[in-house]
Amino acid sequence: MLERLGRALYWPTIAVVALAALYLVFMLYAAGLTSWALGVLLLFGTGFAVYLSKAGFAYRYLFPGVAGMLLFIAFPLAFTTQIGFTNYSSAHLLSQDRVREFLLDQHDTVLDEVRDYSVHGAGSDFRIVLRDPASGAAQFVSPPLALRQTGKPVDVAMQAVGPADATLGTALTLKELVEHRLALAQLRLRLPGRAGGTAATGGVGEASTLHYLGLREFGPIRPHFEEQADGAIRRVADGALFRPDARTGYYEGQGAAAGTHLAPGYKVMVGAQNYRRMLFDAEFRGPFLSIFGWTVVFSLLTVVFATAIGMMLAVLLNWEDLRYRTTYRTLLFLPYAVPGFISILVFKGLFNQNFGEINAILDALFGVRPAWFADPALARTMLLIVNVWLGYPYIMILCTGLLKAIPSDLYEASALAGAGPLTNFFKITAPLIIKPLSPLLVSAFAFNFNNFVLIALLTDGRPDYLSTKIPAGQTDILVSYTYRIAFRDSGTDFGLAAAISTLIFILVAGMSLLNLRLMRNANR
């Protein structure tokens, strides 16, 4: 029964999925996202080909993994790399068409010609009444209108109120006007006999067309800019011309207005400009290279100290004559068991200069209260201490497992030769552990290279460098520095942040390749 039901629903289900996929593709294409529509169409088309044809049977289990890799790894990487070659930022968020529309939409209201209005009628038969600005009496009325949202401006020819318009019915309430506000906003009310305009209203015909200004008013507007036939924009106030510049992503002033531009800007391709800033801009290169060097040192020292401490503790806990080994192992494992962000916030309180327990102890013993968060060297030392505390249990666990794989015969032979514990460690234990441990240490280095949470919660990158073009912290690592550039201090420069992210990816990818090579050598 269930098998027959499954067969009956098989093709209808496929048809529904296919229709949903085609509808999604159509909606993307209708929204102007042609490349997205082609990508989705290719993805669904490949999926149907794999799962509905016998030729694709061998790829049915491979397709989800490949599709997931393309969607969640390859596409974000390609998108980020592409942004790195643009000027995408808070000042250049929109496309050129959107910026042009925004500028042409800027206007002032001619306050002397603003008129109150009321809407009368019901159903699909509404009439708009405009009142005289001076007396408040009904002066113009529209023909019957159907207040529907069309998404485009609707011109309405107004006419003088006559005897037949004496009874228009009850005016809509404020609540009813709110319901029709979107339809009212698209109306352009044209007054009779005003084609020439007046000098007081600023030019020809400006007061002849009234625009929606709110739930109670219609009035004429005076645009700030006018579009020219060659694509330039003319400022009405002084006649200055502004032309789009593909290098800067702004409408740049011409002639007397040269050297000025109109905000906002638009997104353009700038080539390798962001990468050149990293390499050749002295004001940017200094902090960037310092942060890059600190990132490498921070990751390397963390791995070295965590490995040394973790390996030493693992060797001590492997001593069979040590009493309470289980208790010690449990206590030393606790930093790994507690969520990292909790431990970081606890340490942030412990290192507080005025109220922290660490400074209280140092003050009682030595009479000093170090400025852990204000002094760059101390702040970096604090980061290393906390990160090693969080990382050594992982190394300790790994070494504990690796120690069990070392034959005890080697230590017995060493004892017969009269070797001591240090000789055993450097001649037997360390060489046999370090080889299989090396790929994991490379992974730990890559993890600390992108250890954003520690920096964000403990120091937030502070203290900052002084007199830098882009704000940068002396405890920032590359990933936290990228976050500041993209979302915080420097005006959300997504293009530069994407370029740095691409550089980080290349570095981490190189470490991953090294990791794979080390794993291959370890397995030989």
TrEMBL record:
GO biological process, one term: maltodextrin transmembrane transport
Residue ranges of domain ABC transmembrane type-1 in the record: 292-515
Keyword S-adenosyl-L-methionine: no
Keywords: Cell inner membrane, Cell membrane, Membrane, Sugar transport, Transmembrane, Transmembrane helix, Transport
TM region positions: 9-29, 35-52, 59-79, 291-319, 331-351, 382-403, 440-459, 494-514
Superkingdom of the source species: Bacteria
Subcellular location field: Cell inner membrane; Cell membrane
GO cellular component: maltose transport complex
Gene Ontology MF terms in the entry: ABC-type maltose transporter activity
Membrane-topology annotation of the record: Multi-pass membrane protein
One Pfam family cited in the UniProt record for this chain: BPD_transp_1
NCBIfam families: PRK10999.1
Family statement: Belongs to the binding-protein-dependent transport system permease family. MalFG subfamily.
PANTHER family in the record: MALTOSE/MALTODEXTRIN TRANSPORT SYSTEM PERMEASE PROTEIN MALF, MALTOSE_MALTODEXTRIN TRANSPORT SYSTEM PERMEASE PROTEIN MALF
Function comment: Part of the ABC transporter complex MalEFGK involved in maltose/maltodextrin import. Probably responsible for the translocation of the substrate across the membrane.
Self-association and partners: The complex is composed of two ATP-binding proteins (MalK), two transmembrane proteins (MalG and MalF) and a solute-binding protein (MalE).
Name of the protein this chain belongs to: Maltose/maltodextrin transport system permease protein
Record organism: Roseateles chitinivorans
